[in-house]
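Exam review. A common question shows you a sequence with its structure tokens and asks you to describe the fold in words. Practice with the pair below. Do the first one on your own.
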Amino acid sequence: MQRDLKELNLNIEYVYHSGFKLETTDSVIIFDYYQGPIELPKDKKIYVFSSHAHPDHFNPQILHWQEEYPELKYIFSSDIKEAIPSSRDNYIYLEPYSETNIDSLKIKTYGSTDEGVSFFVELNEGKSIFHAGDLNWWHWWGESPEEIKLAEKMFKEEISKIKGIAIDLAFFPVDPRLEHYYSIGGEYFIQEVKPKIFVPMHFGDNYGEIKKFVEKMTSSPTQVIEIKSETKSF
């Protein structure tokens, strides 16, 4: 299965939490930058995605990047508009379940089980990428049975809208704060959507839980990537 990742011909860098940098031959895509060092090339098109306004998914610092890279384009969920003082031509705001083309990127948004959107992006090389944002099965200890049941219903309804699309590479939450239920969203997503490659996110510095999740999914036909503290590019 390792060849699947190589065949994508993408350089993928884990920045932090839900933040990733993807680099192709002619472009760079940033998802949900939160914090951490990041380098941007001068000779490629740059697209910066933010799935919603929560500070661990949208850092206003990214707006300063356009001072050095004036051709940079931002793709934001519509709720971020309230967090930005003024708009510009290179800011694109998207509601859930909308579609747009930006240069060679085909972008479709899906919903979330928290705030904002999730992103489905098709590259001109035929590769397809899904970034879930805060879409997850949020089963929290201490919630009422009614709240837990509603969270499951909302999540499964959203996944049913995504099921059936071909996804080469998926970034999806595996959140240790959910304790015993940290993996149920990711497992269900893999089972129903069947991405070729699954990259865990939304785990902060808890690399041990990611190792445990990867071991749990060894029999899955989906390749699950283990992000390690010492190896953040793959």
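Now try the second one, then compare your answer with the model answer below.
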Amino acid sequence: MKRNKFSSFLQKIRFKYRVSILNENTLEESWHVRLSRLSVFIYLFVFTLLTFVLLSFLIYVTPLRHYLPGYGDTGDRAKIIQESMRADSLTRAMELQAGYLEIIKEIVEGKIKPDSVAGLDSVALQQQAQKLIEKSKKEKEFCEKFEDEEKFSLSSMEDNHSGKTAYVFFRPVNGTIVSTFDLSKRRYGISIQTLPNTNVSSVLSGTVIFSGFTFDDEWVIEVQHQDNYISVYKNNDRLLKNVGEVVRAGEPVAITGSAKDKANNGQFYFELWQQGKPVNPQDLIIF
């Protein structure tokens, strides 16, 4: 029974029809074609397949692919990121300029005396950077202890046991540590809550190897020291040194931002590396 139904169905779709075109005046046959349901299905399938292949080829080899939603190459993404960083820098510059113009406006209107306004030029910044960080009580105790131990030593800076040079690291900023070093969480530094516009000092003498703006950590400066030490200072508001400049230990290299900065909650971030490996700053520096 099933075989008879299949044979009947197969005969039905293979049954051919004659399609003719007649002359309207003479009723003579001008053209005709014989088609079956199966042949019509095959022709439509082949036509659809060829159309799909042709459109795919045109989209692949022509600029039409750029108009497809969600399409984008790596070059476009890099340009978008670069333009986003540039827009962020321009926005920050516009905010500073707007604040400067607002101060000028208040001076002109007599609301602020000119002598009470802090200058924003490089000379004022350098004068502000000259203010050294006062020593804490722990630092004073450490210095006194160090001077007593090294008073009669012929090699005051040489470790007799390991043969390695010992260094006295300066504290980079004054503040409270709010997040500590933790390798398990891939946290390679410490976060310090500081007061607005606090000087950031180099922990050792060295040479600046990076000074610029990054999308994640804002204004960043890195200093190369002896024995392959590298100190990294992040989340700054302004940088005072450029790449290639030599800095002394304790010399200001940047100025921190304010607590109004929502990106980092006004927290300064510090990292210390040696020979490509992160070092816990609290093991070497008294905060």
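Model answer, second protein: Residues 153-163 have pLDDT under 50 and may be disordered. The chain has three domains: 2-67, 75-117, 137-152+168-283. Full marks require stating both points clearly.
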